[in-house]
Design brief:
2 copies of one chain form a homodimer. Chain A is an alpha/beta fold and 449 residues long. The first copy, chain A, is built from 11 helices and 24 strands.
């Protein structure tokens, strides 16, 4: 790799999410640069729609696009399937898990973030988070299996356990998951079963702080809560989780006071959408470079999104704490990563041309979250008071924005057809239980106490 | 289950493939019948397009439809997720793997078939067959990983191993898989890699007998062979496989003579599409009923598709040997199962009304196989000599037939869009490597001998 590219500036981009994708795209326009894009997966994932795969509305292939085909015509881009595990900042070289070292002149770290179990990693087994395609198909399987098991369970108490779904975390992912669950139970599956009524499902959204969607203005949070409740979702704020096992969630009541009482909620399906933690490679970068991080492990970058002590290392998206305004960081949304990626690509090109590089300026395009069918909330500051909508208008805005940002024109058409179809038929056609196909064995009734 | 349905005739259908689906559909029209459809999966799979999932052209959800939503409005149909394992023919009761017994008045066995490794079940690990969605995503992963590994492999010999693909079996599945591989290597991935040229891939189709597509007329077999060769596929007939391991396939040369020489073909990706073997439940039915089977385990049924000694047990599709003409059985294609399912549904309804039941008459609608892009062969007897086409016309026919038989109107639109898109862009957008994400570790070069 070194020999053939000595003449050109070698940029290694780690991570093919929004940040890495847009950085690579910008860099690919310069013939002075040679880019190597490293990802553990061979595709770019449109993460904002991942919950739609988890809830059976879309198929995995419809929200993912192979990285190789995205950059097929950019001959200065090499896509490499591999996992970056460590970095030698002095030698300017990263190492992959299977050994191949790759030299760089500039490194772009765009490895994103995972959900964090706040030190209880054993909960992950009972309460999967939603970050990858495999997570999404696993969660889809759990949701569908729960209804199937309830249909076959005669004991009312155990049936109720199967029919209880708890979503932990009231951020956008938690709200969208809970909304989709409400829609599945009350609409999609309404007439699919014979022994149970899916509308009897109990869906709880539990959140440790006092409101859902904490990055939105308070009235938008209240609107989201009302819309969730209209879908049959019980929203419990100030309710931190203290324990999870395979049959229940234990939460603090009394507003979450440290010495408050706890309540055990019997539930077979618990989904995790709380906390944030960076990936192993971002940790390795922090350690090798000595760069400071916040408590989630995110690297603290300067106004040009580079590490202050290592201007040749940029960090973008969820792996970074990027300065914004009034001391607040850029929010961890797709737009933050997209704008960061574009900025870093432009900045590297400017540096090579010897031009000055203005600091990163995040333009807040606003947020939009969808809540089940035909409802949602928006917070779009630059539209003034028209940007704070709810209900159907929010849903329409969400639709337009997500379709326009989908990578791959075929995906755009297919997703539009699917959505239009679901809209008119109330259906979700990607409800496949793949992987382990079967139900857990039906248990013998417990002997009376 | 017994109490609520004592008044109605209870039919249990095991298997939600083409046979079970069409039988259930026919039966659901009669209010005198109560149907329980049991399947290990919660969806009906459009099996003829499974190879398109394995080769990245379609997403799993696009060729599958939840059984519950298909029968949502048929209130006399109960769908049960479960695996039928045994049957008590005297008590007229089947048992599921998790214990639930289900009583029947009439049983319809529609459990299909698997590929058979001819007694070498250890080969399955190295050479997966293509029968389920999970098989398809596994095969897709293997094909894509092979190109990724070749891209990163510097040693020319090991690179060649990664770039060699062997398909075992020259029936429709083998021909369609080999054709799709030819298209992937020469067209889809053509410009995706930097170190390798995917067009250098070696694709072999090996078949034990003297021609591919043995159920077609000889001139159609020859046409299919020519079209495969045009796509860069090496077709080797009279070449039985004698051994498979993780790095090679060993075949007999000299026309497959018993004492002939063998040749070892180094190849990392071997796909299996040969032989036929029934499922465990069909075996259990044969054992419990004492019904005769052929050597693949298929149950031999009478002219009404029931077991001669047990007229209340019907067997349809690939699990049965159904009489046809001149001693030949109904071919193991979707049409055979669809027509058998419809016939059995009608026959049960006629019996309940006390009407005479004519014997099953298979109407041969003909066969069509597609070979890569824009090519294929057809054999449609009732169209006379116009039914024996090849090339583009065959491909068009195939397209129309498969779209019209897809279950679920949304799937029809989505698949049409995908295909139209692939046609114009030469792309396959569902090229996701899911499951185990990473390449096998790069090996150290072997020391010179």
């Amino acid at each position: 790799m070194t020999a053939q590219s000595a003449a050109r500036h070698r940029v290694v981009v780690v991570g093919g999410g929004f940040g890495g994708l847009y950085a690579t795209r910008e860099l690919s326009r310069s013939s002075a640069v040679e880019v190597t894009l490293v990802d553990r997966r061979n595709f770019h994932l449109f993460q904002p729609l991942l919950y739609q795969v988890a809830t059976g509305a879309l198929a995995p292939g419809e929200i993912a696009q192979p990285l190789r085909s995205i950059f097929r015509q950019r001959l200065n881009v090499t896509v490499l399937l591999g996992e970056a595990v460590s970095v030698d900042v002095a030698a300017r070289r990263i190492v992959l898990s299977d050994g191949g070292p790759i030299d760089y002149d500039t490194l772009v770290v765009a490895t994103g973030a995972q959900f964090s179990y706040f030190g209880h990693d054993d909960w992950a087994r009972f309460a999967p988070g939603l970050k990858s395609i495999d997570d999404a198909t696993d969660i889809r399987r759990r949701i569908l299996i729960a209804f199937e098991a309830a249909e076959r369970e005669a004991d009312p108490q155990r049936r109720a356990e199967w029919m209880t779904f708890v979503v932990v975390g009231g951020g956008p992912t938690g709200v969208e998951l809970a909304g989709a669950l409400g829609e599945i139970a009350n609409d999609t599956l309404r007439r699919d079963f014979r022994a149970i009524n899916p509308g009897d499902a109990r869906i709880l959204l539990v959140e440790a702080i006092d409101r859902v969607l904490p990055t939105y203005p308070a009235d938008r949070s209240a609107s989201a809560r009302r819309q969730l409740e209209r879908l049959g979702v019980t929203v419990r704020t100030k309710t931190p989780v203290v324990a999870i096992d395979d049959r229940s969630v234990e939460v603090k009541v009394d507003g979450g006071k440290a010495d408050g009482a706890t309540e055990r909620i019997p539930a077979r399906t618990v989904l995790w959408a709380a906390g944030v933690r960076v990936s192993g490679f971002a940790h390795a970068v922090a350690e090798a470079s000595g760069a400071p991080t916040d408590k989630a492990g995110r690297l603290i970058v300067g106004p040009d999104l580079a590490l202050p002590a290592h201007p040749e290392i940029f960090v973008i998206g969820d792996a970074a704490v990027e300065p914004w305004k009034e001391g607040r960081p850029v929010p961890g949304v797709a737009q933050g990563a997209i704008q960061g990626g574009r900025y870093v690509g432009t900045t590297i090109r400017r540096r090579l041309r010897g031009e000055p590089t203005p600091p990163f300026h995040y333009r807040d395009l606003g947020d939009v979250a969808v809540i089940g069918r035909l409802a949602g909330v928006t917070n779009i500051p630059w539209l003034g008071r028209f940007g704070r909508t709810g209900g159907f208008l929010a849903w329409l805005l969400w639709l337009g924005i997500h379709i326009s940002y989908l990578i791959g024109f075929a995906n755009r058409i297919v997703v539009t057809v699917r959505w239009a179809w679901s809209f008119f038929t109330h259906g979700r056609s990607s409800r496949l239980i793949t992987g382990q196909p079967l139900l857990p064995p039906i248990e013998e009734p417990e002997p009376p106490a």
